[in-house]
Amino acid sequence: MNFVLKRVYEPCSPEDGTRILVDRLWPRGVSKDGARIDLWLKEIAPSPELRKSFCHDPAKWDTFRSMYLEELAGNPVPVGTLLETARHGTVTLVYGAKDPFYNHANVLKEFLDGSSEQR
After folding, report:
1. Residues 98, 13, 26, CA angle at the centre, nearest 5°?
2. Residue 20 near residue 94 (C-beta atoms within 8 A)
3. Strands 18-21 and 3-7
4. N vs C: which end of the chain shows fewer Cβ within 10 Å?
5. What pLDDT, on a 0 to 100 scale, did the predictor assign at position 115?
6. Which 3-state string (H, E, C) describes the chain?
7. Digits of tens for pLDDT over the chain (119 positions)?
8. CB 39 within 8 A of CB 18
9. How many domains does the chain have?
């Protein structure tokens, strides 16, 4: 299965395959037409409490990562949606965070890559 990460502010490309927004909130300054999102899967994003406690602080990364992995393990429906979609081709996990490393989409991709290996 092929999962790719891309910021919502980057241009779309044919190689993106199915574009799925994995943020709980719609990204600022982006129109729905301009984003070209195929599916907005809000429920796969970190809980509001976890997102607010992390606040994109690299010093809190390890704790955030562990807690978000736990949330994902207990959230089988949206995880299953992503895994099933990826069976049909590339899935681009679209996110709005500025930092390309310290963001939930990286943790989500890590989780999905591990889950797809187990299937």
Report:
1. 40
2. yes
3. unpaired
4. C
5. 73
6. CCEEEEECCCCCCHHHCEEEECCCCCCCCCCHHHHCCCEECHHHCCCHHHHHHHCCCHHHHHHHHHHHHHHHHCCHHHHHHHHHHHCCCCEEEEECCCCCCCCHHHHHHHHHHHHHHHC
7. 799 999 999 999 999 999 999 999 999 999 988 899 999 999 999 999 999 999 989 999 999 999 999 999 999 999 999 999 999 999 999 999 999 999 999 999 999 998 755 55
8. yes
9. 1
Please check whether residue 107 is in contact with residue 34, taking contact to mean a CB–CB distance below 8 angstroms: no
Residue 119 included in any domain: no
Q: What pLDDT does 117 receive? A: 58
**What is the residue range of 104's domain?**
3-114
Separation of alpha carbons 113 and 1, rounded Å: 8
User: Distance of CA 9 to CAs 27, 82, 87, Å?
Assistant: 9, 21, 26
> Per residue in 11-43, is it b (16+ CB within 10 Å) or e — as a string?
eeeeebbbbbbbbbebbeeeeeeebebeebbee
Largest CA distance in the chain: 38
